[in-house]
């Protein structure tokens, strides 16, 4: 990869890291509905903080707070391959896996209660827009009716 490719990789990494500042992922107005958070808490021990467009609309940022570390452990498992599904069309989006950075999501063997974690999904062609309804499939669990902010 040439100098231009390295500059793009570094620029994308800086953009990604700047979006991950702790404490900035609180729920906003018109964000994920209360029903979505309740489903997450019951099934996975999490509370959805938000589903937002990021990186100029080329990625979807899913943030969640761990409320039960034992139940949230499968969500943070590296072997689990989460998928984002557009509820209107059924289109599926995956987590990018750049060779130098690895999958754009957090994983751990010991989730911390109260900590906010993220998963970034590719949004090629800016397919999903704010207001789109999506579901997130996590192994046998599924969080539905989340609204992209």
Could you characterize what this model shows?
The protein has a four-stranded antiparallel beta sheet with strand order 4-3-6-7. The chain has three helices and seven strands; from the N terminus they run ααββαβββββ. The protein is α+β, with helices and mostly antiparallel strands and 149 residues long. The chain has helices at 3-18, 34-44, 69-72, and strands spanning 46-54, 59-66, 83-86, 92-93, 116-122, 133-138, 141-147. β1 (46-54) and β2 (59-66) form a beta hairpin. Helices cover 21% and strands 29% of the residues. The chain has one domain (3-147). Residues 3-38 have low confidence and may be disordered.
Query: What proportion of the residues form beta strands (DSSP E)?
Result: 25-35%
Low-pLDDT segments: 3-38
Major sheet, described briefly? 4 strands, antiparallel
Number of helices: 3
Instruction: Choose one word for the global shape.
Output: globular
N to C succession of SSEs: HHEEHEEEEE
pLDDT averaged over residues: 79
User: How many strand segments?
Assistant: 7
State the strand order across the main sheet: 4-3-6-7
Provide the gyration radius in Å.
Answer: 15 Å
Helical amount? 10-25%
For the termini, the CA-CA separation is: 35 Å
Structural class, by secondary structure, is alpha+beta
Number of domains: 1
């Amino acid at each position: 990869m040439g100098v231009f490719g390295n500059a793009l990789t570094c620029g994308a990494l800086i953009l990604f890291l700047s979006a991950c500042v702790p404490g900035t992922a609180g729920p906003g107005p018109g964000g994920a509905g209360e029903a979505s958070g309740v489903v997450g808490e019951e099934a996975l021990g999490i509370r959805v903080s938000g589903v937002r467009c990021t990186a100029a609309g080329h990625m979807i940022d899913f943030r969640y707070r761990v409320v039960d570390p034992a139940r949230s452990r499968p969500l943070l498992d590296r072997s689990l391959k989460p998928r984002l599904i557009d509820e209107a069309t059924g289109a599926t989006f995956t987590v990018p896996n750049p060779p130098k950075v690895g999958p754009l999501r957090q994983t751990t063997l010991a989730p911390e209660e109260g900590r906010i974690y993220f998963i970034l999904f590719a949004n090629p062609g800016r397919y999903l827009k704010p207001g789109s309804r999506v579901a997130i499939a996590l192994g046998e669990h599924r969080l539905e009716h989340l609204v992209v902010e």
